[in-house]
Structure formats: C-alpha cells, structure tokens
Amino acid sequence: GSSCVCQPGYRMVSSNGGSSIICEKCPENMSGVTQDGWNCITCPKGLTSEGKCKCLNNEILVERSIDGILLNEALCIHCNGSEQSFSASDVSGNRCVRCEQTFINVSKSCDCSSPNILTGGLCFSASDSLPPKGVATVRFGQLGITLTSAWFQKNLQSSASACWLYSNLTACQALGNMCVMNMNSLSSSSTDACGLFQYIYVNTARLGIVHSIAFWRHNLPWLYYGDQPGLASQVLEANHFPTIFSFKGTDKDVKLQFIAASFDAAGNFLQWQNLEGGILQLCPDTQTKLNAAYTFGTTYQQSCKISVSKILLDFANPIFYDLFLEYNGDNGQQYLWAVPVLNLNLQYSEMFVNQGSNMNNWLLTRRFFLVDTLSGKENDLGKLPRVIRIASKITISIRLVSHTQRGTIYPPLLTIAYTDVLVQNPETQSVMVSFSVSYEMNQSEAQIQTDITLGVLGGLAVLWSLLKTAGWKRRTGSSIIDLQTVLKFLLFYAGDLANVFFVITVGTGIYWLVFFKAQQFVSVLLPLPSQEEDFVTYIACAFSLKALQFLQLLVSQLTIDIFFIDWERPKGKVLKAVEGEGVIKSAAAPVSIWRTYFIANEWNEIQTVRKINPLFQVLAVLFFLEVVGFSNLALMDSSSSLTRNSESYIAPWSRILRFGVSAALWLAIAFLQIIFISVFYERFVEDKISQFVDLCCMSNISVFLLSHSCFGYYIHGRSVHGHADTNMEEMNMNLKREA
Name one GO biological process term (predicted). Predict the structure, then answer.
C-alpha cells in the first residue's frame, strides 16, 4: 500500500516511486509484460494472472538476448536434466541450475517418476526405509481449531525423510521448527511434527550426543530436556550458574550476557544475536530502555498493544531462537549456558502441566519463537494466515541461591505464553504483549522469622492488654469480670496488636531497604509482588485495628467529666428583691462567670496541641520524597542513587520499599520535631500546657478531670492571693508580691 503499480496488460512509461507512475496499454499482438514491467512482449505459452509470460515446469523464461537486446517473442527454454547436465529450472524460473542431489541419487536424472516418492522438492526411493507418514495439522488449542497447514504439507514429510535418511542438518532443524510451531505437543497416537521428531530422536541413539548433554542428539536440534518426572527441578536447582554477580562492580558483574542462536523456518542458521538489541521485546522503545532489561537486579516490565496488521508486516517469516547465557570460566575462556524454556501452552501428556509452582510437573523445552504467521496458512503460502500465534507474555526469571553471600544464582528460566489469534480484520485487531525480567529468592525463611516475631510480640501484646484492662478495672471501681470488661480488653488488644503489625511492617520495609540497596555482592533479592501479599495484609490489619482504637479513644474523650472550680469569693453584699414576698434583702455579690468561660475556651484550644506540627510533617516528608528524590530508593533496581535520568528505564515500585522509605522518613522527621519542641521550643518559646496551668492559677480556677469513675486528673489553680476578679492595679501588685 505504499506505491502504485500498473494493471495487468499495461507497461510502465515512467515511475518516480509512490503514486507518481504513468502506464500504457500493450498492443494486442504483444499483450504480455516483461518481468521488469517496462516493456511489452509476445508470450508463446500464455500469461500469468499478473499479465507476464509463463513457462512450463523445468523451463526457464528468456526475454533478452545475451547482449541485453529485448526479444519480440519470449522464449521458454527446456533445462537438460539428463546425465552430465542434471539441470532444472530454479525457483524463480529464470535460470537452469543443477537439480537437487536426491533426484540424482535416486533416478540418475532430474525426474522423480513413480514408484519414487516426490515430496517437498526432494526425491526418495520407494525402497528406502522412510519414517511414518506425517500428519500436516497444527492444533490451536485456545481457539479449538485444528488446521491443515500448507507449510507442513509441503515440508513435513520431506524434512523428516531427509533428516532420517541423510541426517541433513537443515532438514532436522526444519523438522524441529515445525514441532515448535505445534507447541512441542506430542501424542503417542499421532505422527504430527513432534511425533516424527521423537521417532527420529529415539531411533538415532547411535549418532551420539553433543557437548555431553544427554538430551541433545547429533544433527538434531535440542527441543526437550526429557520427560522423566522431577527432571525440571534437577535442571533448575541441581547446579549453580558459575558466575558471581554484584551491584557495585564492573559492567560484566551487573550485566546478564544473554545470546541467542537464530534459525529461519526452513532450518537455516541465521546468526548469533545479543538480547540487548531488544530482539525479544515486541514493544517499541529506546535502545537505552531496552538494554536495561538485562541489568542484574533491575526488575523490568514492558507491555503494550500491537495491531495484527503490524505483526503480519514485521513478522512475515518466523524466526526460532535457542537461548544461552554467556559467562567466563576460570581460565578466561568464554562458555555458553543453555537457558531452559517453560512453554505454558505445551500439551505433552497428562503427566506434565506447565503451570503452577510444582516443578516436578514441568516439561522444559529449548527452542521458541515470537510470532508464527506461517503454520496457520491453510492453502496458499502467499495469502494471509487464518490463525497466527503470538508470544503474548515472556518472562525471564532469575532466582538467587539460598544462603548465598557472593551473588550466586540458579540457571535462568524463560517462561513463555502464546496467544492464538483468528485473523479476521487485521487493521482493527490487536494483541496485548508483555516482556519482563524478574528476580526472586526463597522467602520461606523470612516468612518464618516474621511469623515468629508476630507470635512473640502478639503474646506480649496480650499481656500488656491484660495489664491495661486490670488498671481500667481499678479506675472504674469494679471487681467483677463482665461483658464490658471483655469488650474493653478486646479494644485494648486491638490497639496493641495494631502497634505490633506496625512495628513488623516498618522493620520489614527498612530491612529490605538497607540490605537490598546497600549490598555489594548479592545476598538478598526483593520479594515479588505476589510475595508481598502478607505484607499488604499486615498493613491493612494495622490500619483497621488502629482505626478501631481511634474510635475507642474518641468515645472516651467525649465521655470525660470536666469540672471547673471557681475559688473566687464574693466581695461585699448587694440588695436583692425576693420574688413573691415584696421585700428587699441583702445577699452576697455574685462572682463573674467570664473567667470560667475563658478557662473552658482555653481548654478546648489545647486539646489539639501536639508534639509535632502536622502540616510541617507532611510537607517535609513530601519534600524529601519528591524533591530530594528519596522515592527513587523504592524502585526495584540495584541503584541507590537519589536521581534518575528521565531517558533511562524506570523500574516498577516495590510496595515494601515504598512503605519502608515513607515510614522511615516520617518517623525520622517526627522524632526530630519531638526533640526540637521538647528541648528548645517549649523551654525557650512557649509551653502550652504550663501556660494553661499558670492561667488557672491567675484566674483562681481549678480543673477536675474524671476519665473514669474512680480516676481522674486535677489542676490546682487556687490563687495564693485570694482574689483574681480584681482590677489591673491590684493584679499587678499581686504579681509583684508573688515575684
């Protein structure tokens, strides 16, 4: 769709690319168009659908003489397939080339006539011991569709026969690729691609093995690790990867040197490719961000939606990969470690289920692909496929060896999940794909230690709550244990248990923050998001229980009895009429209530006095998190820097680290505020509580607070001067006398 072409029967007059093209109709006697499209020519044996000359099989098309002069009539020249020549037309039909060697071996010519067997462009003798007849079907389990693949029909039997008879490397690789396109699925009752591969694998033990690897047969690709139960755990945990990784070292210490051998569908080796080129990441991104996926200790996540039309355009031909991890031996020699693959779509037998955490039920494989647009073509290989298969989720898992102090890891594992897409409208269809690199370690020991801490502190919380309940019973003057006592104990225990959860979560967050970010040789790795569920549960419990304690505290504050005792005595007497009697009597002069109102108002104001300033606390924490950059310490990478380059990859957040950084900053700033207010501000500026006590003394008013039936607090505010309701002169004299 990027340029215009002439219709059949028209030749080009001019073309500047794109839509700039001029065409001219060919005359009736020269209705054909040359292969380059610029001239008209007579075609003796008919035209193709594109309006160009066609020739019979084993003939080549000649449109120009040796010196390049265009012929008036095209020639169809027969290739001589007899002995000495052994020539046949090439795929494009432009040249006579030596015919395939199997034709010569079987028939001593370029003709594969009956009873010889012609399949996939190869000729086999009927007397040869060939493998079973292959089934050219591909199963798309997610859609419930089984297709007869045009690619399999053309190449399956020929690849299996050439691999079986001649141990042809390319044919064996092509057969292995067809097995991989069929999701490595093997049925004992079927002779599909994997059935033929397994047949050849079992019956070629005489060929020996490669690099002392029992699963890698000579001339065959390495597809399986074997189907013995429990073999996966041995492969993934029996041996350690022979390299030490560190966070504070050279690039070789912090980079995972993944390298892949790539093959095309026909079995041809293409090249060695470093994964830092982003070959496994289907989502487009900058080279710097793509390369960050293989920095040791950096959790990498990438996901996006890709249109089916773009997939069909970019991945017209599938590429197959064998993944290795490169390392240096003790002698400085470079070695490759084969990376096993866990295909979640594999259907091998009922014994193996490549899902869940039980490694004993896994069947590990080796070869994989990203996009398969080939096996889903039913009839014509040149048309759009009916179904395509896409690697929608790829995860490289790096697991740390337990109790290591030198950064030792187990062999990496590539987990891949495919999505089957029924092609209907490629322009509107899209697929969500993701790529991630995760780092994990066995968290069972940390979980046990957390459970022990929770049990010990929870038991101490029970004892402390019992002591507080006993104190509450004494203060209420009650000696019996009733329902109210049990309820009060549960409320006390809720608050204490909230403190226990808070201490555990803060301790956990600070532990991972310090030991993960500060380590040189890797000894700990952060918990995965799925392993943080208990931590999140603890935080939720702490919040819920503390909210319950807060409500109980609010209720207790609302039920406190407060008495303001005015010690002021009346000054003199006043005449007062007695209602109903009609007489006037003298009575004590009333004392003004405004002093009591004033003290009560001051009491309301100091109820919100704290040892910290809440507004300053929040702003200071936000300043250090967002401006200074402490929030970057919560990223799931090995860097302890407070700054990040906006063009570089930003790792996802760790919930444990986020809580640890935030809680540590909050507690540190609150602790500094408490020290400042207690040591400096209250001593040299003002102390609200002391000022209130002094005000009570000057106002000649005492405060009696009863929080329980038999317990309370008392501020003795009786003035030593006897009177507080007086004028300014007498008040000044009283203060001087007191001084």
Answer: cilium assembly
Q: Which residue has the tokens 């390298």?
A: 259
Rounded Cα–Cα distance for residues 536 and 125 (Å): 69
8 Å CB contact between 660 and 512 = yes
CA distance 366 to 388: 21
In this prediction, residue 3 carries a pLDDT of 78
Q: Considering all CA atoms of the chain, what is the largest pairwise distance in Å, rounded to the nearest integer?
A: 155
Q: What is the 3-state secondary structure (H, E, C) of 595-643?
A: HHHHHHHHHHHHCCCCCCCHHHHHHHHHHHHHHHCHHHHHECCCCCCCC
Distance CA 437, CA 281 (A): 11
Write down the pLDDT at residue 654: 92
| Cα–Cα dist 190/23, whole Å | 54
pLDDT per position as a tens digit, 131-157? 777 788 888 888 888 889 989 988 898
Whole-Å CA distances, 241 to 170, 335, 398: 31, 11, 11
Model pTM score: 0.78
Q: What is the DSSP letter of 267?
A: S
Model confidence pLDDT, tens digit, residues 372-406:
999 998 877 667 889 999 999 999 999 998 887 77
SS3 labels along 427-477: CCCEEEEEEEEEEECCCHHHHHHHHHHHHHHHHHHHHHHHHHHHHHHHHHC
Short-list 580, 553, 539, CA closest to 491: 553
Candidates 551, 448, 552, 450; CA nearest to 500 is: 450
CA 80 to chain centre: 61
Q: Is 122 helix (H, G, I), strand (E, B) or coil?
A: strand
Please give the helix or strand (H or E) that residue 389 lies within, else none: strand 387-399
Q: What is the pLDDT of residue 349?
A: 47
Q: Which of 447, 453, 310, 318 is nearest to 373 (CA)?
A: 318
Count CB neighbours of 727 within 10 A: 7
Residue type, 224: Y
Distance (Å, rounded) from C-alpha 175 to C-alpha 193? Answer: 7
Antiparallel, parallel or unpaired: β 387-399 and 430-440: parallel
Q: How far is CA 507 from CA 205, 410, 689, in A?
A: 58, 29, 34
CA distance 128 to 106: 10
Q: How many CA atoms lie within 13 A of 535 on its CB side?
A: 24
Residue 73: partners with Cβ closer than 8 Å, 6 or more residues away:
41, 42, 43, 44
User: 282-287: which pairs have CB atoms within 8 A and are 24 or more residues apart?
Assistant: 282/306, 282/370, 282/371, 282/391, 282/433, 282/435, 283/433, 283/435, 286/647
Structure tokens at 132: 């079973």
> 635 pairs with which residues across the strands?
653
> What is the DSSP-derived secondary structure letter of residue 47?
B
Span 24-72, pLDDT tens digits: 999 988 889 998 899 999 998 888 888 999 888 878 889 998 888 998 8
Query: How many beta carbons lie within 10 A of that of residue 592, not counting itself?
Result: 11
Residue type at 653 in one-letter notation:
W
Q: What residues have CB less than 8 Å from 315, skipping those under 6 apart?
A: 370, 371, 373
Which residue type occupies 607? Q
CB–CB of 513/633 below 8 Å? yes
Which residues touch 148 (CB under 8 Å, ≥6 apart)?
A: 136, 137, 378
Let me know: does 638 contact 254? Beta carbons within 8 Å: yes
